[in-house]
Amino acid sequence: MDLSPDLPSIAPAQRADARAFAAYLIEHVAESGRRGAPHFAVATSLIPEEVEQNALDRWSKALDEPLWGRAWLLRSSDLRPRVIGHIELRGGRVRAEGHRAVVAMGILAPYTGQGHGRRLLETAIAWARDKAGLAYLDLGVFSNNERARRLYTRMGFVPVGTREDAFRVDGIILDDIQMTLALRDPAAGGARAR
């Protein structure tokens, strides 16, 4: 929990947060590729009830279930705090990839460039390593999103491949750079198939 009253707070998402999370995510996705921002989302519009229900479904699953999710919300320090950013870790589709999670995160434009992305990543990485015992965190970032790529690199994520022409949004071709962060020694997890 953050101590400074002026600093936006970070707290784990609860079921009661799903509606506020959905409203924030819809606002955030609408910023993608607009007013000089790089494209960072493939969706151009979201349905609030679907976003809310999907979040509730992920957040209610145990970590040993496929497609689990755990999120942390960044809330403004206003008199009426609202969700202004998030980070979510999502488990894989099958149990055999249960040692990994995919990172999804975002912050509303007026709050970017203030260190909140680093704070969100530090929170999720510590939880993944120390509480969930995960071995890897994976993410995809569009090649045009240089600010996000720099942040992920500073946090220890390394590029492991690029899906060229992965998405086409508003007539723009977007390459998707895949990045991974090893949270523990890969050799400790078992023998690698050859």
TrEMBL record:
Q: Answer whether the UniProt record assigns the keyword NAD to this protein.
A: no
A molecular function (GO) held by this record is: acyltransferase activity, transferring groups other than amino-acyl groups
Annotated coiled-coil positions are: none
Please report the name of this protein according to its UniProt entry: N-acetyltransferase domain-containing protein
Which PANTHER family would you find in this protein's record? AMINOALKYLPHOSPHONATE N-ACETYLTRANSFERASE-RELATED (PTHR43877:SF2), AMINOALKYLPHOSPHONATE N-ACETYLTRANSFERASE-RELATED-RELATED (PTHR43877)
Out of the domains of life, which is the source? Bacteria
Record's signal peptide:
none
Which organism does this sequence originate in? Answer: Sorangium cellulosum (Polyangium cellulosum)
